[in-house]
Amino acid sequence: MWQPDQVEFHPHARLRMAERRISENQVLHTLNEPDRRYPSYDGRTVAERDTMPGNILRVIYVERLQGVLVLSVIRIAPKRT
User: Fold this and answer.
1) pLDDT for res 50
2) What whole-number distance in Å separates Cα of residue 76 and Cα of residue 51?
């Protein structure tokens, strides 16, 4: 399990978190207890967690020697009709 001091946030991730009102705790929870985890490109990994019906928190990161670097954070919500 990743501890808060092992998680570094890229400036892009910080910007997206602020825009989307996503906390560091939500990101840490997604990293530690994802509903899905799968590889992406360039050695990146994606962790996804279903936060409520139809909502998904997606964290894109790379693992490092002493922790992880979070590159981006996305909240996917159902389309409104």
Assistant:
1) 94
2) 10
For 40, the token pair is 């992406």
Q: CB neighbours of 20 closer than 8 A, spacing ≥ 6?
A: 73, 74, 75
Query: CA-to-CA distance for 3 and 10, rounded, in angstroms?
Result: 17
Question: Would you say 45 and 61 are in contact if contact means Cβ atoms under 8 Å apart?
Answer: yes
pTM of the full predicted structure?
0.92
Letter string b/e over residues 34-45, b meaning 16 or more CB atoms within 10 A of that residue's CB: beeeeeeeeeeb
pLDDT: is 77 or 18 the higher one?
18
End-to-end CA distance of the chain: 39
Distance CA 34, CA 79 (A): 23
For 24-44, what is the mean pLDDT? 96
